[in-house]
Amino acid sequence: MRFLERFDVQQQNHGGGDDDPGADDRLQQARTEGDRLLAAGDEAIQRALAGSNSEAFLRAGRQQGGQ
């Protein structure tokens, strides 16, 4: 099933989403949390790459032993 078809089915099953007044707040919270996670990931990558080469970055992320 394609994404748009699933979206239409979800909208029909949930009455269009307008019935729940808190839905917009939850959506905004999810977007804010997603943005925060992306920023944290970007910062971690930038710190790992700063002043080093990509080979050292890849070595640091490689599993060792039974980790």
What does it look like?
The chain has 67 residues and is mainly alpha-helical. The chain starts with a helix and ends in a 6-residue tail after the last helix. The relative contact order is 0.06. The chain is 69% helix and 0% strand.
Q: What features would you highlight for this structure?
A:
single chain; mainly alpha; 3 helices
Q: What fraction of the residues are assigned to beta strands by DSSP?
A: under 5%
Low confidence ranges: none
| Number of contiguous helices | 3
Taken from the alpha-carbon principal axes, the silhouette is: elongated
Mean pLDDT across the residues is: 76
Q: What class do helices, strands and sheet pairing give?
A: mainly alpha
- Our measurement of the CA-to-CA distance between the termini, rounded to an integer number of angstroms, reads 38 Å
Order of helices and strands: HHH
Number of strands: 0
Kindly state the percentage of residues in helix.
Answer: 55-70%
Evaluate the radius of gyration: 20 Å
The major β-sheet equals:
none
What is shown here, in short?
The protein is 69% helix and 0% strand. With 67 residues, it is mainly alpha-helical.
Describe the secondary-structure layout.
Blueprint: H1 3-13, H2 23-49, H3 54-61
